[in-house]
Specification:
The chain contains 4 helices and 4 strands; from the N terminus they run βαβαβαβα. By secondary structure, it is an alpha/beta fold. Strand 3, helix 3 and strand 4 form a beta-alpha-beta unit.
C-alpha cells in the first residue's frame, strides 16, 4: 500500500512522525510533504497531480487553525483524504476540527 502524508507546516512534523512510523511498521510506503494550502498552492497542486498518477491509495492531511489543507486536497483528487486536525495556540485544535468536519 502507498500513502501520502501532507502537513501544512514544518512545525507539524513532530506531531505526524508517530503516524509515519506506525504506517511504516505495517509496510506501508509513505511519502511525506510539507505543502501549505495557502503559501504553496501551486506546489501542492503539482504534488496532488503526481500522487494521482503514482499509485498512492490514500492521502492523510494534517493541519491546524483554519485547516484548509484537507479540503483543498480533496477538491483535486478522487483518492480518500483523511483530515487530521492539529492543536493550535488558541482553541486547542477545535478550530481545525470544525473546519475539517464534513457537513
Amino acid at each position: 500500500m502507498k500513502a501520502s502524508i501532507i502537513m501544512g507546516s514544518t512545525s507539524d512534523l513532530a506531531k505526524v512522525e508517530p503516524a509515519i512510523e506506525l504506517l511504516k511498521s505495517f509496510d506501508v510506503n509513505v511519502s511525506v510533504r510539507c505543502l501549505s494550502a495557502h503559501r504553496a498552492a501551486a506546489q501542492l497542486s503539482a504534488y496532488i497531480k503526481e500522487i494521482n498518477e503514482d499509485g498512492t491509495e490514500v492521502v492523510i492531511t494534517a493541519a491546524g487553525m483554519a485547516a484548509a489543507l484537507p479540503g483543498v486536497v480533496a477538491s483535486q483528487t478522487v483518492l480518500p483524504v483523511i483530515g487530521v486536525p492539529l492543536s493550535g495556540s488558541v482553541l486547542d485544535g477545535q478550530d481545525a476540527l470544525y473546519s475539517i468536519q464534513d457537513a
